[in-house]
Known about the structure:
Strand content: 5-15%
Low-confidence stretches: none
Number of helices: 10
Largest sheet: 6 strands, mixed
Radius of gyration: 28 Å
CATH superfamily of the domain at 103-286: Ethanolamine ammonia-lyase light chain (EutC)
Distance between the termini: 106 Å
Strand order of the largest sheet: 1-3-2-4-5-6
Order of helices and strands: HHHHEHHEHEHEEEHH
Amino acid sequence: MDIEVIVKQVLEELTKVEKSKTNSINASKEKVEEVIRKVVFNKEKAVGVDNPADEEMIEKVQKITPARIGIGHTGTRMKTRDYLDFRIDHAAAQDAVFKGVSEEFLKELQLPVLQSKSSSMDEYLMNLNSGRKLDEASRKWAEEHLPKNKQVQIIVSDGLSSSGIEANISDLLPALIQGLKVRNISIGDPVFIKRSRVWIQDEIAKIVNCDVVISLIGERPGLATSKSISAYLIYRPNQDTVEADRTVISNIHEGGVPPVEAGAFLADLLADVLKAKTSGVKFAQMK
Length: 287
């Protein structure tokens, strides 16, 4: 047989082998991806205690609290399912802090986006004061563009839960604005401030000269929920303002105070604060 023919046949066989390997690898990848797509961890409460003395009581308690009650154990550790459930909640809490509100969501909000002096999440977490002031560019923009002398100024802040903001603000903010308009309360242009803390509202209030400033800010996430936000409001803050001067409504999320209901309640609360001309402990004592 001619050598060229032999070489040609060998090359053809090698090509067939390589194609077979490639097809096999691709098929394996597709199978793995299909399995991954089908893996769903359904979170559901169940009594994990072996031979409980009062299983019915454990079930009742589990229904009224998000705490991990009656999960049982294997030796000195949690059972595998409960451990996976814990890891999922822990990962969600970390994501809520570190991932930041998405640019797509910010575009949907259609709010001016300002920035605190925190240049990174590490700085925001380690240097509290960096989140309490606007950076220079944002401060100048606010001075030039935000409406002045309104009764209420609204701030939206990612705070410690970007997940909380994305889950609740789309329902909460319109309900709050509508409630204020129904009461003929004048509102400044709401703003979103990245990596800001509650006290940044004092600087904003000074810039716009409003009566009340309210911050809708992501709460520190826990293992029960990573999607909660709080509303902090204060009447005419100044250099002598302390924490006791602020009124706060917390646990705004689908498992706590629903966002639409919270918006309506906050509108009523702001109307009362404007009438009382005070907030915080002094306002609570008047109620």
